[in-house]
UniProtKB/TrEMBL annotation, chain A:
Subunit comment: Component of the GINS complex.
Name of a matching Pfam family: Sld5
Taxonomic source organism: Himantopus himantopus (Black-winged stilt)
Localisation: Nucleus
Name assigned to this protein: DNA replication complex GINS protein PSF3
Main location: nucleus
Protein role: Required for correct functioning of the GINS complex, a complex that plays an essential role in the initiation of DNA replication, and progression of DNA replication forks. GINS complex is a core component of CDC45-MCM-GINS (CMG) helicase, the molecular machine that unwinds template DNA during replication, and around which the replisome is built.
Family of the protein in this entry: Belongs to the GINS3/PSF3 family.
Organism lineage string: Eukaryota, Metazoa, Chordata, Craniata, Vertebrata
Chain ranges passing through the membrane: none
Coiled-coil portions: none
UniProtKB/TrEMBL annotation, chain B:
Keywords, alphabetical: DNA replication, Nucleus
Domain GINS subunit: 14-85
Entry GO CC: GINS complex
UniProt-listed Pfam families: PSF1_C, Sld5
Localization: Nucleus
Family, per entry: Belongs to the GINS1/PSF1 family.
Leader sequence residues: none
Function: Required for correct functioning of the GINS complex, a complex that plays an essential role in the initiation of DNA replication, and progression of DNA replication forks. GINS complex seems to bind preferentially to single-stranded DNA.
Keyword check for Nucleus: yes
Stretches assigned to the DNA replication complex GINS protein PSF1 C-terminal domain: 101-152
Protein name: DNA replication complex GINS protein PSF1
Subunit description: Component of the GINS complex.
Name of the coding gene: Gins1
Amino acid sequence: SLVQGSKLEVPLWLAKGLHDSKRRIISVELPKIYKEAWRTVFSADANVVDLHKMGPYYYGFGSQLLNFDNPENPDIAQTILQTFISRFRRIMDSSQNAYNEDTSALVARLDELERALFRAGQKGLNDFQCWEKGQASQITASSLVQNYGKRKFTDMDG
Amino acid sequence: SCSSRSEAKSGRTDLIFLIRFRHCCLLRNQRCILAYLYDRLLRIRALRWEYGSILPNTIQFHMSAEEVEWFNQYKKSLATYMRSVGGEEGLDLTQDIKPPKSLYIEVRCLRDYGEFEIDDGTTVLLKKNSQHFLPRWKCEQLIRQGVLEHILS
């Protein structure tokens, strides 16, 4: 029993499912960080923004927002892309240069996509260091065993 | 008749909304379930490579019958494939996942395992903290299972 014109907060998946360009069941209002005011901030200097605080899935969620036929979509898309381009260089550099140190400050202001990229960079760096030390040929226990270490894992009569 | 037509139309719009809404929820639930089951399947597949072809009871206990069946089929497919490559004997792709540097390696036993037979018929007693110099291909699986630890010199 919803009255026409009422405003609601719904999850993205529901909005996507209900949205229909022809039938006009719902219209979607943009979250503020994708609106013009914030887009200007991003284009000024994207590196200073705390993307984790601004909703940790800035890129993913922003891309999904483009599903709703908003007239501002081209500008939104452009901003998201340019933001990524300006921030990426720093993320890549820092992930390749921070070896064996506390990276929590570097990672704190990154959104989830950027964090995944950072982790990938770190893994590459660690694997390389491991290889340089001659540890690449060392056979290791499966991660499953390491996680279940404390429990009894001795049922191997098969 | 004009007003009853518009009433019918708005009733129909409400119905469309409701059907769409319910359908969305069903699809979402389906997606969540599939994501969960698929993630489990990926982990089960990884077990074949990281752990071995026989799963410990503690793991099997937590798997559904369909997952156990899937694991067995996967094992079979993999074995068939491995037999078909590398000539007459086939090729065990699950061995030497890290490039080997030597035929024999130094290992330390992490827990009591018991007697372990090596190729030339001799047996070794694997007791906790004992160290041995053994053929790499015999130890690989036990290291992955956490029984032995590979020591680099």
